[in-house]
Amino acid sequence: MAEPLKIMLAISEVDGFVKTGGLADIGRSLPLALKKRGHDVRIILPYYSKIIRQKTMIPAVETLGVPMGNKELWCAVKQCFEEKVPVYLVEYDLFFARERCYDDGTYPFVDNAERFGFFSKAVLQACQALNFAPDIIHCNDWHTALLPFYLKEHEKDNPFFKKTATLLTFHNASFQGHFPLTSREFLGIGWEHFSSDRFEDFGQLNFLKGGIAWADKINAVSPGYAEELLTPLGGHGLHEMLQRRQNDVHGILNGCDYQTWNPEIDPYIPVTYSALDLNGKRTCKEELQKAFQLPRRPDIPVIGMVTRLSAQKGFEFAIPALMEILNWELQLIVLGAGEHWIEGALDVLEQQFPEKVGWKNGYDWGLAHWIEAGSDMFLMPSLFEPCGLNQMYSLKYGTLPIVRSVGGLRDTVTHFTEADGTGFVFEEPSPEALIHCVRQSVETYYEQPAAFQKLIQNAMAKQFDWENSADQYEDLYLETMKK
């Protein structure tokens, strides 16, 4: 690099501040990796004042005017640091002083269009107030997808941003930011932009469509997902727009935080272990069975799951498959929360197979580590998976992934062969395909223990670090700046 890049990462959540999913991981890990490469990288997110605690804030901008529609809203910007990376938080209590980021626990907030449209506009105002003219504004998902539009349309004559380019990353394109037309005036979206190749989507506004239209470059969080977005099956209705910009669509695999997810140093698991000494993994398995009140059976395989309980994760075909699989000599341990019908189905499985099924409704950070360490296999039968992180954790912990060949899963897990592989992979989203794949993993466990151990060694040798991802983002930023 001739000189460091000036990068502003605009995102709705950051691990260590607020987290509802994998979006928060890139919000923290990528900037830290870019900082190590010498770039002037900064993070900006909403200040969810009732959620973000135990952070020492200082004023960065005491009063900031943000023009929205025919009015100006006044907010403030606070600042703190995450390992020397400046983090800015847009403080506007009317929009962000709530107990949750996006919904009330049941329904999305009715003013989400106004909340995140305001946040996107506030990012540009904050850059000017801070006298930080970015080379790149890195936008993420629908929450900041209006930023490229505001930059190209509302700030097109502003010399402050004359060299600023935008990158829009898709973490999960099934969430697109659909909102009624009543928000259009407040957001400053003129009628000339309400067309099918811009914001219009079945009579509503679609933030992500607008982002595709105005961002300089677009990327997804794995090469596999970038390819799937261009297809009718995997494009979530956006494939035609993305196909028109195919040369601007890229895929970069998320990295894995090995400071947090590493069995050699993990403080959450009963005993640490490594690829050179797996004795601790056997202890973790016994303790995991004990924690879920299952018979302590070191001789049978344990299949783990830590997941959102949603249709995206493949439960519509996984539940029928598990009804047969659980007749075999194995145990299933599940941690997750989500759709009530899936929770009910897991309750039924636990009642029918009390010595084989353990599951907890909710999320427990420490228990998630236990499941990764104590399981023999880890099940991810997703309908689609933009990147996925649990399969990366599983590889590191020597817990062989059983995954469907989609998105980031097919980029990170290779199917078992006699000589190679890091897990077990199936193609079709059907009970039959899943049953066949799980059967192969179980038979390998029982009948080919040497091959199973070789798979574990292969898996634990894999590395998907953020340094490599940051290197690819650096190249993509430079390419984006040429637009």
Explain what this protein looks like in three dimensions.
The structure is a single chain. The protein contains 17 helices and 18 strands. By secondary structure, it is α/β, with parallel strands linked by helices. It has two domains: 6-255 and 466-481, Rossmann fold (3-Layer(aba) Sandwich), CATH 3.40.50.2000; 279-461, Glycogen Phosphorylase B (Rossmann fold), CATH 3.40.50. A nine-stranded mixed sheet has the order 3-4-5-2-1-6-7-11-12, sandwiched between helices. Strand 4 and strand 5 (85-91) form a beta hairpin. Helix 1 (23-36) packs across helix 17 and helix 10 crosses helix 15. The chain is globular, with a radius of gyration of 23 Å. The model has no long low-confidence stretch (mean pLDDT 96).
Number of strands: 18
**Helical content (DSSP H or I, runs of 4+):** 25-40%
CATH architecture of the largest domain: 3-Layer(aba) Sandwich
- Number of helical segments? 17
Low-confidence stretches: none
Measured distance between first and last alpha carbons: 19 Å
Describe the strand arrangement of the main beta sheet, using strand numbers.
Answer: 3-4-5-2-1-6-7-11-12
Give the averaged pLDDT, no decimals: 96
State the CATH superfamily name of the largest domain.
Answer: Glycogen Phosphorylase B
Integer-rounded radius of gyration: 23 Å
Beta-strand proportion: 15-25%
CATH class of the largest domain: Alpha Beta
Number of domains: 2
Summing up helix and strand content along with how strands pair, one would put the structural category as alpha/beta
Biggest beta-sheet profile: 9 strands, mixed
CATH topology of the largest domain: Rossmann fold
Give the overall shape, derived from the CA principal axes. globular
